[in-house]
Amino acid sequence: MATWARAVRDRRLDGSVRFDKGWVPTERVGTYFAAADVVVLPYVSASTSAVLLLAQAHGCVVVATSVGPMPELIAQGRSGLTVPPADPEALAQAVIDLLDSPPRSRAIGQRARAMVEESHGWAEIAVKTEALYGELLGL
Length: 139
Known about the structure:
Blueprint: H1 2-10, H2 26-35, E1 39-41, H3 50-57, E2 62-65, H4 70-73, E3 81-83, H5 88-99, H6 102-120, H7 122-136
Parallel strand pairs: 1-2, 2-3
């Protein structure tokens, strides 16, 4: 953490970057996402990411590494951006590209929100659950 704090200080970004260690209470999650210009998920491996779906559900634009399910959950350029894992230059460039184009970032975030609501919202979950029960019960 000290290395990151030093990098932020050296670049005079103290007022723009905030480090919060630990768990964020559910009632504060929306505040964090509302304050984010870009949500960055630099995973080196992943089996899933609740943070990704939460960020998308809040209309945030996300840059994530293309590991685990990320490529299936992010439509490249439409609902977020993916970059190769362990490639800090690609990660930085993707973030810079989004920060340089707020209208594009907002559009991507809005599409991400719509995709999450359509594919992962409670209405869709209910339909899928009912279909599964019907299949298991032979109905």
